[in-house]
Amino acid sequence: MTIFTGAGSSTTTTHFIDGRWTDATGPTFPVRNPLDDSLVAEAAAGGAAEASAAVAAARAAFPAWAELAPGARQRLFLSAADIVERRTEQLVELMAVEGGASRAFSTFQIRLSAAMLRQAAGWGYLPYGDVLRSDIPGRTAMVTRKPLGVVAGFTPWNGAFYLAWRTFLLPMAFGNTTVIKPSEEAPLSAGLIHAEILAEAGFPAGTFNVVTHAPGEAAAIADVFFDSPEVRCINFTGSDTTARILGERAGRSLKRMVLELGGFNPVLVLDDADLEEAVKAVTFGAFLHQGQVCMNSRKVYVASALHDEFVSRLAERVSALKAGDPTDPEVIIGPLITDRAVQQIDERVRDALDRGATLVTGGTAEGRVYRPTILTDVPADAICATGQDETFGPLLVVQRFDDLEAAVAEAQATPYGLSAAIMTRDRARGLDLAQRFDSGIVHVNAPTMASEAALPVGGVKDSGWGRSGHYAVEDFTELRLTTVSSE
Ligand code: ADP
């Protein structure tokens, strides 16, 4: 099946279970372009029955996949990476019409995805375990890593293409099989297109399965995952609100969880920063994908001496970003995903302005295309400034600071701990400050975004548990101790 044949056309998609696209006989739900509500696809509205079939297929495929030689696995992943690159134009178009992604953002995701597939290709060869000393004479002890079994993944709509790869391939590279439930907002770019690519690459039937569902039906599928003993781990990317609901279920069924959640991602611009570099890093970090990425910067603390010049250069750069239809390659700011998303940003901008903030640029929308917005003089109790509740859109707060220690403390007075950035010409000072951040990632002189697939990404505190990159071996395998004694 070809699930996406180009902008302007619409297909009916089905689930992918046990190496086959299912029959297109059941109910469907519409998947629409967030720019103009045009139909992108009619997707299968699955539920518990499909989820159970997918889990059974993944369970059946597990022993052979777990035992497959590393070289055979490697060839499959390398082939998938080539297919991703070969399909660049199709993928760019799909991400634009289904998710509102600019070409800049979709090509960023494609580059990272291909890189991640090529890195994961070699993970089958990673050190497999250790031989340990024992106090008992004649005893040999060894520790080996075993895959968990079936890993069930929830993928989000925002960095859909890249994040779904992460959900499939980190567990699969270590010998697990997978069932993915893509977000109902973007089921094609958050899972179905991956099934098409993995099938084309020749991955064995049942090693990856995708079940789609209509809005409001996620819980029925989640229930099957939690109630199936074969599912050993829930791999979730999304909001901390949903993660709390799933976490309670995981507590009852004692399932391991890997969570990639939201962030506040503060930036500190120190008084010795290269202003132009700081402006570039913040523009990219705050407004990539119109602020709908978990690592987007929500607040920048700028040393007083640089503040006014920083704001004026940032405003100039940001207001020049072209907004509109993301199929236009020059457009950087596409539509937000839903009316609710537009409403959230608008409410937060109005809330800050009502409390006395100054609007530097933005603050208006055309349809769902919200102009990138910068606020200054924002009181600490404005919703967008507190760092307590993630703002998920093109809204950046810039705050002046005189006291660096106070700014460092304030930047961390948030339940989130995903990414942070420090801009300074003094690398030693940057490194020293970085060590004091309670954050999964701290960049000195780079945007808060991830830009290399090999480096481990993940959060602390309410931003989640687990890491990408080869450190994911900790999340998706378990240790087995074997001892052999002489008699
Ligand atoms: P976002 O707000 O970024 O869409 P969500 O946390 O709502 O993030 O969604 C992330 C994933 O979680 C999606 O795949 C969605 O379908 C799923 N999801 C949302 N609510 C529930 C729920 N109550 N039970 C199970 N899954 C859910």
What does this structure look like?
The chain is of the alpha/beta class and 487 residues long. It has two domains: 11-261 and 459-480, Aldehyde Dehydrogenase, Chain A, domain 1 (3-Layer(aba) Sandwich), CATH 3.40.605; 265-444, Aldehyde Dehydrogenase, Chain A, domain 2. The protein has helices spanning 48-67, 70-86, 88-99, 103-121, 160-173, 188-201, 218-227, 240-253, 275-287, 304-319, 339-354, 383-386, 404-411, 427-435, 473-476, and strands at residues 11-13, 16-17, 20-21, 28-32, 39-44, 129-132, 140-147, 150-155, 177-182, 208-210, 231-237, 256-260, 267-269, 299-303, 358-361, 365-366, 369-370, 373-376, 395-401, 416-417, 419-423, 441-444, 460-461, 464-465, 477-484. The strands form seven sheets. The protein has a seven-stranded mixed sheet, sandwiched between helices. It has a six-stranded mixed sheet with strand order 10-9-8-11-12-24, sandwiched between helices. Helix 2 packs antiparallel against helix 4 (103-121), helix 3 (88-99) crosses helix 4 (103-121) and helix 9 packs across helix 10 (304-319). The longest helix is centred in the N-terminal third of the chain and has 20 residues, at 48-67. The mean pLDDT is 97. Adenosine-5'-diphosphate (ADP) is lined by residues 154-157, 181, 183-184, 218-219, 222, 238-239, 242, 245-246.
